[in-house]
Write a structure and sequence with these properties.
Two copies of one chain form a homodimer. Chain A has about 130 residues and is mainly α. Chain A contains six helices and three strands, in the order H-E-H-H-E-E-H-H-H. Chains A and B meet through helix 1, helix 4, helix 5 and helix 6 of A and helix 1, helix 4, helix 5 and helix 6 of B. Chain A binds a DNA duplex (30 and 30 nucleotides) through helix 1 and helix 3.
DNA sequence: TTGACCTAGCGAAAACGTTCGCTACACTGA
DNA sequence: TCAGTGTAGCGAACGTTTTCGCTAGGTCAA
């Protein structure tokens, strides 16, 4: 059960995911240390959040290790992509391009990054 | 000091904003007709949501008009930009470019749109 | 063995978002 | 005036997310 969860990660869940993406697979203790530094919550809360996230399939854990080791179920990229699609749907009714342009226009990009975008464009036109 | 730390619009709030962006300034009745068509909720609910949104500063209203007229407090673009920034912060810790590239790469764009992106790039490099 | 300290988890409370019932008031046509 | 119809709003109920108190069990050194 608890398989195809369609809903986005919530605020705190995302906060925890970010920590996991940074730290890599970690025991609760390490995750908590970070989370607590960011928002001062209790150890119990961290444990609970992780268990909720486990139910939802947002994280996985290795229970053979003595302090259980948690790791994100999705990469940062996959999550970002998914949330972006959701944002585009909600605000622009699916017109992704509008948002890409928006994002580009409001970003201070380095020449390197701009070149990267160009390369990507070439690739897309090549298809 | 009106707009202090305004949180992001929630799901339904956004749905209403989207309707307002499309319809332009409207009385509750029109907003409700649309919202009801989308999710079958009650008229009371629409009124309540609008009052909550008024409190939060997400919409404004003209109370001199007989059926009060509501309008969005922010443009679609400003809201999209803001939410995007938030998403970038939450997922990528502020590295906007990663997400732009992501978005671009995962979008099926028409040649016209790609040309538009190119034009924007030229502009950015021109500066 | 005992005490200090850690991990793990349950269940309930608090906080927040969403929904609607019910009430009041304004306007219109008979 | 009065019934009928529409607008406005309060307050409570409900569901979900976030928080934590409390308990149980594991490890280790004295």
């Amino acid at each position: 059960m608890a398989k195809s969860r369609a809903s986005q990660p919530t605020e705190v869940e995302l906060q925890i995911l970010r920590i996991l993406w940074e730290l890599g697979p970690s025991p609760v203790r390490n995750i908590h240390t970070r989370l607590n530094a960011e928002k001062g919550t209790n150890y119990s809360t961290t444990v609970k959040m992780l268990s909720v996230m486990l139910d939802k399939g947002l994280v996985k854990r290795d229970e053979t290790a003595s302090p259980h080791i948690y790791r994100p179920a999705m990469t940062r990229e996959a999550t970002g992509k998914r949330m972006l699609r959701d944002l585009v749907d909600k605000v622009y009714d699916g017109a992704a391009m509008s948002l890409v342009l928006q994002a580009l226009a409001s970003t201070k990009a380095t020449p390197d990054e701009l070149a990267e975008v160009r390369r990507l464009l070439d690739e897309m036109e090549g298809q």
